[in-house]
Amino acid sequence: MARQEQVLVLEPQHELKFRGPFTDVVTATLKLTNPTDRNVCFKVKTTAPRRYCVRPNSGIIDAGASVNVSVMLQPFDYDPNEKSKHKFMVQSMLAPYDMTDMEGVWKEAKPEELMDSKLRCAFEMPLENDKTHESESNKTVSSSASSVKTEHSVLPKSASASLDDGEVKKIMEECKRLQMEVQRLREENKQIREDDGLRKRKVTSMAASHSSSMATSAMRDEGLSTRVLAFCVLFFVIGVIIGKLAL
User: Fold this and answer.
1) What span, in angstroms and rounded, lies between the C-alpha atoms of 84 and 90?
2) What domains, with CATH codes, occur in the chain?
3) pLDDT per position as a tens digit, 202-224
4) Which are the contacts of 71, defined by CB distance < 8 A and separation ≥ 6?
5) What pTM did the predictor assign?
C-alpha cells in the first residue's frame, strides 16, 4: 500500500538555503503548517546530524497551527567547488485521539500511516557587491550608533554637572542647619549646667544649715546633761553633809 501524501505544508518546499560566511553558525528557518482538522505529529531528520542542530526536531502541531523549525548549520571550512549532499526529511503522521506517549506512537506506527517530505541543502556565499554593501551598511550603522553614544555620553555629563551643583547647594544648606542645631544644643547644655550648679549650691547650703542646727542642738543637749550631772553631784554632797550632822 502506497504511503499517504504529506498533509503538512512546508516553507520552503524543496530546498533549505544557508547563506555564508560559514565561520559562525548559520540558521535557516523551516515553517510547518497543519491545515487539517487533526493534530499532526512530526519529526525532522537529516543525513548529517553532526553538522546541524534542529530545534524543535519533533513535536505535535495542532489543527490549523504552524511551527517554525530552526535549522542551525555549524561552522565549517567552505569549499565553493564542493556541492552539498546534505538532505532533510520531515516525517509526519496523524496523532491518535487518545495519544498519551508520542514516542510509543512513533514506534507502533504502521508504514502506511507515515508521511514524509524531503529537502536538499544549498550553501551560498555573498557576492563581492553584497559584501561591499554589507560592510558599508555596517559602517553606517556603527557610525550612527557611535554618534548616538556620543550624544548620550554628553548629555549625562551636563546633567550630572547640574546635579552636582544642586547636591552641593543641598549639602551646604544641610551643613548650616547642622551648625545651628549644634549651637542650639550647646546653649541648652550650658543652661542645664548652670541650673544644675544652682541646684547643687542650694542643696549644699541646705545641708550646711541642717548640720549646724544639728550641732547646735547637740551642744544644747550636752550642756543640759552637764548641768543635770552637776546638780546631782551637788545634791549628793549636800545629802552626805546632812547625814554626818545628824549623826
Assistant:
1) 19
2) 9-124 (2.60.40.10)
3) 766 676 666 666 655 555 655 55
4) 16, 27, 28, 29, 30, 44, 52, 53, 54, 88
5) 0.52
